[in-house]
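[job 0412] stage=complex_fold ligand=pimeloyl-AMP status=START
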Amino acid sequence: MSRVIISSTMDAPLFSVRMRATLRGRHLAGAERIVPLSDVSQVVSDLMSRVVTGADVVADDVSCHAERIDSDALSHANLPDISTWQVSDFQEGRAVAAQLLSRAGVDPDVASRAVQLLAEGAGPGGTVMRGAAIMDAATGVRLESDPSRGVRASRMDVAIECRRDFEARLHRAGLGHRRVLEALVLAGKVISAPGIVAELCWSDDPEYPVGYVADRAHGYQRISELKPVGNPHGGRIFFVKPGTLSIIELTNYLERHPVMFDSLGKINPAARWEPGHG
Ligand code: WAQ
Ligand code: MG
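[job 0412] stage=complex_fold status=DONE, emitting structure tokens
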């Protein structure tokens, strides 16, 4: 029975569905999925209801866009393994993030400066960027063409026939918050991109202090605190190998190339970070 459902959804044309909400022209929230045509209207409704029924987010403009994906262009990939480092406070968390970044191949000074940059707001005048900064892993030079928008990773999702199972497994591991799967999928696409060394991220949501460092060798490494609760700063930095490819090509891959994940990695139990670890 389930075989029939799987093969019929796999053959159906796929659509990228993307929602974006703004308030007085300022970006508030975005979310996206890749689903068969038959699920588009349900997904549009789910994504829209996030912002129109959310008590704490009041958008004055919400748009949803569905666009057919060329199935020949679709890549399949595995989600990275998940680990969680428990730290005592955000200062320790930031030190751990810098260490994980240098372990991934980011210059240690660049890693520390990058953490500081996100803490201060990587956009013009210390604002939160809409997307990610791209940074040379060796020199720390910023490479994104628009430092206020940054680069938006887009067109990635969990295969629809896997979603329920992945959500249930994350939930059982205590990782059922919607942000975890969304960030995992985003990081999975980012570290699959040619030239990427690592990603650093924490949310701009004042209530959400967890962040992560991701790289191909060590996977999605959560850090329990990267900022104090109440702090509205957050962002993402994608670190690239110096001179390996054009930033235009990389941006095009991150923003436009569709990637579908059909397997979840290993979920490691949370562990306390011990100095000297890694
Ligand atoms: N592409 C690039 N950068 C983005 C994107 C995107 N699609 N979406 C958001 N950003 C940037 C932007 O600067 C946001 O301010 C920042 O990232 C944070 O976005 O417990 O929820 O959606 O394992 O607030 C990570 C930990 C949560 C989850 C991250 O990010 C966990 C999060 P948010
Ligand atoms: Mg946010």
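The first helix runs from residue 2 to 11.
[job 0412] exit 0
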